[in-house]
Design goal:
- The protein is an alpha+beta fold.
- It has 4 helices and 6 strands; from the N terminus they run αβββαβββαα.
- Strand 5 and strand 6 form a beta hairpin.
- Helix 2 crosses helix 4.
- The termini are far apart.
């Protein structure tokens, strides 16, 4: 299952470069920006792992070149925005779990209310991530994947990043 997670994160990196909403949840656009540490892995070859750091590093030409050589995104620090809520976390391809999550600011004043709101925001982050995975799976299982998406991904790997 790790290869599917790596394909999903690689697809998400490709889609996120446009900075447009990738999907809509509760009538709110969901955008994703890769914004920090990124790890690429391959199952074989001369280079089996590459790690880059920096705010714009995930969109660097070096990363696209490595992707074109067969490496796939294994872990990534992402910023997910839905409406006015901004979530920062690390995604892992192996289990597609959220790590090191920074949730949107709490609005409630009471301690009991804060805990409930925090749990609600954590659940929302998971739900939004699941929606992104579902969008990937829908595209990945479509008949047009190999005719349209794969060639577009390969072409993207050859082009310089959008400024």
């Amino acid at each position: 299952r790790t290869w599917l997670g790596r394909e999903c994160l690689t697809w998400l990196l490709w889609k996120s470069e446009s900075t447009e909403g990738l999907l809509t949840v509760d009538r709110q656009p969901v955008t994703v920006v890769f914004n920090g540490k990124l790890t690429l892995r391959a199952s074989a070859g001369d280079v089996t792992e590459l790690q880059v750091k920096g705010v714009a590093a995930p969109y660097a030409v070096l990363v696209k070149h490595a992707l074109g050589r067969g490496l796939l995104v294994h872990t990534a620090k992402v910023q997910l925005t839905c409406g006015e809520q901004v979530y920062d976390f690390t995604l892992d391809a192996e289990f597609f779990d959220l790590r090191s999550a920074k949730l949107p600011a709490l609005l409630k004043e009471e301690d009991d209310d804060k805990l409930g709101e925090r749990l609600e925001l954590a659940s929302r982050a998971s739900t939004l991530t699941d929606a992104l995975v579902s969008a990937f799976l829908k595209e990945r299982t479509a008949r047009s994947w190999s005719q349209k998406a794969v060639p577009a991904l390969k072409e993207w790997m050859k082009t310089p990043p959008v400024k």
